[in-house]
């Protein structure tokens, strides 16, 4: 199975820049790249912060741009999103009984679970008991390999100002216990940190990547406010088979030339 993961599109009101760049232009370039190079992907998941201020006009533009994507798309909610306006514009986005934007999807690779880690009124994350009860039911139904998608990571990343707006520590512990009991979590995909990070959390492989518009600087010393950079955006091409989850990051706006080293003897 081939999956595309991208995150933190941060769409603004149409025509409005954000930190000197244009989120909609970035997303259009990303869609063009996916269509040209990876139109055979089975699914594209965007792990939250779809709109910077949760405006309905931004969601309209998101819908309009994504209408041109040749790959089916699944949205996940992030802390910059507005739950009601997001669902108003994307009514196909399923909600659980409590209203959280959460759903599960059976795929050839296993069960994909799209989680709502938004804590209302703050940029930090939560995964409360109500959501964990829903997740426990989904895991019970799944019975196979499970892939998780959410906005916040349930662990500290070492980027301290971002960790201050990470997931509630008690919720993260309870989530970990629930997932460990299930035991068949193959991978966790998340957004929020606007940086590439890969590793494992309590034995569960994870990955995240740069956002579409702006990035968080790699600074492990700062305690208070994070800094942004304009490192190029990326999307991930994920190849999943029975044994492996392989995550390729694609800097789709990198202007570097592709060349055959055997055809460039003058560079020897
Ligand atoms: Fe973000």
Automatic annotation (TrEMBL):
Describe the location of the Calcineurin-like phosphoesterase domain by residue ranges.
1-196
Q: What are the alphabetically sorted keywords of the record?
A: Hydrolase, Metal-binding
Q: Which Pfam families match?
A: Metallophos (PF00149)
Source domain of life is Bacteria
Tell me the protein's name. Answer: Phosphodiesterase
Organism of origin is Marinobacterium weihaiense
